[in-house]
């Protein structure tokens, strides 16, 4: 069983965007009050709003985050392991007092072992909040039967759901991890410009390749990703690459260089919008001419970097009439 950490509160941070807005309001109010000093200008409401914004969006979450992370550091987090069960989406309706408007809070509810979890999608609090781009695409997808190890803190008192501080999700193989259409996970191979899960690249080589990719993306607007995987899990490399591209949202405008050293396979997957610039024949020519010969000589990192360079040269070069 392969477990992958998909959430860890230690990697979280407080979003300072709204506290900075509050600080800006305070400064504007101060300038209006003491800088210009024009009669009739009432800057106190602006200052009060700024102070409230800083407290509500900065000070309180920071205090809460410190409280939870310090409890984790003291070893107070508990662990439960087993398949997820009783997973369901829930929606709670409420009303805003100021406008009497109706709003909805969305929750994911599920259990592991005999512990029940309740995840608020929009919670402004420390602990796991499964925010995604949409409700259909949360940051971490959960489903019944998925093997899980969850660390949690019952820190908010009786009757309150425990805070999730870490989530490890399991899959029988890397192929299973990628192919879970309904319960897919943002595994590391679906994150970042370089996902070197086969541990083929040194840190210096990663920096060099990442610089090439970032420069290419800034200049062209196209996405380029390098993925190495320790196993294809018995899946054809074309399908494996397609699943990764789909999970990354780059089936249309993206290029994936996928390397599976244990199966001695490599593939360049090209999005539909780039097929004219990098057709299948050209992608295979890059593999045959720049990548695979270096692999055969034992220079796998050099082959990956050469492949990236050739892909960039082909796609970023002048378009043929």
Structure notes:
The chain has 321 residues and is of the alpha+beta class. The protein has three domains: 110 residues, no CATH class; 64 residues; 129 residues, Diaminopimelate Epimerase, Chain A, domain 1, CATH 3.10.310.50. It has seven helices and ten strands. Strands 1-6-5-2-3-4 form a six-stranded antiparallel beta sheet. A hairpin with a 4-residue loop joins strand 9 and strand 10. Helix 1 runs antiparallel to helix 2. The longest helix is centred in the N-terminal third of the chain and has 30 residues. It is globular, with a radius of gyration of 25 Å. It starts with a strand and ends in a 5-residue tail after the last helix.
- What is the alpha-carbon Rg in Å? 25 Å
Decide which structural class fits the backbone.
Answer: alpha+beta
**Arithmetic mean of pLDDT:** 80
Stretches where pLDDT is under 50 for at least 5 consecutive residues are 177-187
CATH architectural designation of the largest domain? Roll
Helix-strand pattern? EHHEEEEEHEHEHEEHH
> Which topology of the largest domain does CATH recognise?
Diaminopimelate Epimerase, Chain A, domain 1
Oligomer: single chain
What share of the residues lie within helices? Answer: 25-40%
* Count of the domains: 3
- Count of helical segments? 7
Largest sheet: 6 strands, antiparallel
Straight-line N-to-C gap: 52 Å
Strand content: 15-25%
**What's the number of extended β-strand segments?**
10
Strand order of the largest sheet: 1-6-5-2-3-4
Shape designation: globular
CATH class of the largest domain: Alpha Beta
């Amino acid at each position: 069983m392969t477990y992958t950490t998909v959430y860890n509160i230690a990697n979280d941070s407080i979003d300072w965007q709204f506290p900075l807005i509050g600080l800006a309001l305070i400064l504007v109010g101060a300038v209006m009050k003491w800088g210009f000093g024009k009669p009739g200008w009432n800057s106190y409401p602006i200052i009060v709003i700024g102070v409230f914004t800083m407290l509500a969006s900065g000070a309180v979450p920071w205090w809460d985050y410190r409280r939870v992370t310090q409890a984790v550091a003291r070893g107070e987090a508990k662990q439960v392991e087993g398949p997820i069960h009783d997973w369901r989406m829930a929606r709670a309706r409420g009303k805003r007092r100021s406008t009497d408007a109706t709003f909805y809070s969305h929750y994911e509810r599920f259990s592991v072992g005999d512990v029940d979890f309740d995840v608020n999608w929009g919670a402004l609090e420390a602990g796991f909040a499964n925010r995604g781009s949409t409700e259909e695409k949360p940051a971490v997808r959960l489903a019944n039967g998925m093997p899980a190890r969850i660390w949690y803190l019952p820190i908010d008192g009786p009757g309150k759901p425990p805070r999730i501080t870490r989530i490890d999700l399991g899959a029988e193989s890397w192929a299973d991890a990628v192919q879970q259409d309904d319960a897919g996970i943002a595994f590391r191979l679906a994150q970042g410009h370089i996902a070197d899960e086969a541990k083929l690249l040194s840190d210096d080589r990663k920096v060099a390749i990442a610089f090439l990719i970032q420069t290419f993306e800034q200049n062209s607007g196209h996405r380029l990703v390098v993925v190495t995987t320790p196993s294809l899990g018995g899946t054809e490399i074309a399908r494996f690459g397609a699943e990764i591209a789909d999970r990354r949202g780059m089936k249309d405008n993206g290029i994936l260089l996928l390397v599976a050293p244990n199966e001695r396979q490599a593939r360049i997957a090209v999005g539909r919008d780039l097929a004219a610039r990098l057709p299948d024949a050209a992608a295979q020519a890059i593999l045959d001419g720049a990548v695979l010969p270096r692999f055969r000589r034992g220079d796998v990192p050099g082959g990956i970097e050469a492949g990236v360079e050739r892909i960039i040269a082909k796609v970023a070069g002048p378009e043929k009439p």
